[in-house]
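Need the bound structure for iron/sulfur cluster, inputs here:
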Amino acid sequence: MSTSTVSTALTEPVAVTAGTILSVRDLWVEYRAERGMVQAVRGVNFDLRKGESLALIGESGSGKTTLAVALIRLLTKTARVPRGTVTYWRNGREVDVLALGAEDLRRFRWKECAMVFQSALNSLNPVLKVWDQMYDTVRYHESMSKDAAWQRSLEVLQMVQLDAARVLNSYPHELSGGMRQRVLLAMGLLLNPQVLLLDEPTTALDILTQRSIINLLRQLKATLGFSTIFISHDLSLAAELADRVATMYAGQVVELGEVRDIFYRPRHPYTLGLLQAVPSLTAGESEMVSIPGSPPDLIDLPSGCKFHPRCTYAIERCRAEEPALLTVGPQHGAACLRWAQVAQDREHVETQRA
Ligand code: SF4
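Answer from helper R.:
Posting the output first, comments after.
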């Protein structure tokens, strides 16, 4: 197996990386809407390694959540996957996730790949105690006695540092936002999955609670060894938790690389724009720049590179040609025709700063 995860063309077969637990190839997802088809995910390729943490970053509507939901086949009825594969590696054997029957799919979800959804308040049932919700999850996915389910629930709630017995007997509204988020995390861990998908795990939490959830995630990952894909608007969260980062724009992964490369050596103007829009205590006001324009209409996408209407690097060729993810460094890919110019400009800025 190759060690490269960067495809040189969207339609070219990509070798699977050693130690992979989940691989995604040329995945497309579209939704039917009144105005036409919404192209939510477009030709995504990546491998998730065992124990790795991959962050998906990008503005709202860039396809991050749709991609995550497609991985566990929880797309709405109006969505379809016209092309692509999702492969899970179960004890070294390939499992074609998109072809799983109902029984196998139930095993895959929660037991092998679980998702912690955004907004703890909306994800928990307000009229059921935490225990009832946890027991429902266990019972649906696993044949386990009630006593064993109770013990397992206590165990995972303790793992997320909650007063387990009290929380099991509580309704969601009796818990704080941070506690509810921990409950969701515990539910995700109930059946000991190999892959945990986290959608905005710290959104709507105060800064101190965010910090404790980040520390907790780090500890759990180190102890339990699961892989995570987490979606975040918060680049500082990605910087702290991710091993690799994938930038998404208009449904496509436009940059993919090790966390240090993405933050210190971005090669796609959109990643650069996201980084420059983050307020910093040390940078002057003039260094904080927002990306001009708005994300594209996914029903009526621009020609060529989908970022060209907003890109300060755009040239005529960008309007006609949609670049594939090009190798721009070891384990680093960017879908940009002018990535070398971006690199040169970054070097220039760094030299001036030094
Ligand atoms: S291909 Fe062109 S428009 Fe697209 S990001 Fe690169 S420079 Fe900008």
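Comments: Confidence is low (pLDDT under 50) at residues 1-12. The first strand starts at residue 20 and ends at 33.
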